[in-house]
Amino acid sequence: MFVRTLIASTLIVAGLAAPAFAGECPADKMKADAVKPVTLGAMGVTDKVLSTIDLSKEKVALNGHMMRVRRLEVQPGGIVPWHSHAERPALIYVVSGEIVENASNCAVPILHKAGEVALESHATAHWWQNKGNAAVTLLSFDIVRDPNDKHM
Q1: Is the Cβ–Cβ distance between 93 and 141 less than 8 Å?
Q2: Staple partner for 43: which of 24, 67, 79, 127, CB 3.0–4.6 Å?
Q3: Inside any domain, residue 8
Q4: CA-CA distance, 19 to 16, in Å (whole number)?
Q5: Do 128 and 80 touch, CB atoms closer than 8 A?
Q6: Does a structural domain hold residue 4?
Q7: Is the dihedral of CA 79, 112, 72, 120 positive or negative?
Q8: CATH number of the domain where residue 73 is located
Q9: Sign of the torsion formed by the C-alpha atoms of 25, 149, 69 and 44
Q10: Which three-class secondary structure string do you get for 25-86?
């Protein structure tokens, strides 16, 4: 009984310590081409590459690809412009603040909050906007062909 309680407690604590996945599109709101591309440019966004790894030199031997970590600061009213992840999968960790994603396959905006992780796969095309009164800090972990690609 003690072992079972210890295991259950460990699983509960581990679940609380793990980051939550970000808000997702409600199933009844998923629809192809729900949001059309917009031509808004980057506004109020700083994007700094913190580190990269040349994946051609790693065991995965993914020639011509880099894994990188970037820190993005999105000021109130700021916009991360429309972009696709067709060839650039990414995980976005929301460090602070709240930000709204407008995804091509969702009929409603998706709210992402601090402590959550947004998944960006080959099916993702979207733009983000800070509708709040405080800056939003994001960490972007992506795989890219061109290390200078800032998607903005």
Answers
A1: yes
A2: 79
A3: no
A4: 8
A5: yes
A6: no
A7: negative
A8: 2.60.120.10
A9: negative
A10: CCHHHECCCCCCCCCCCCEEEEEEEEEEEEHHHCCCCCCCCEEEEEEEEEEEEEEEEEEECC
R_g of the chain, CA atoms, integer Å: 18
Domain count, the chain: 1
Residue 73 CA to residue 9 CA, distance in Å, equals: 37
Whether 131 is covered by a domain: the verdict is yes
| 0.90 exceeded by pTM | no
In a domain, 151, yes or no: no
pLDDT tens string 3-26 = 444 444 444 444 444 444 567 888
| pLDDT tens figures, 24-75 | 888 899 888 889 999 999 999 999 999 999 999 999 999 999 999 999 999 9
Supply 16's token pair. 């609380």
Domain membership of residue 29 as a residue range = 20-144
State the amino acid at position 101 in one-letter form: E
Q: How far apart are CA 126 and CA 27, in angstroms?
A: 18
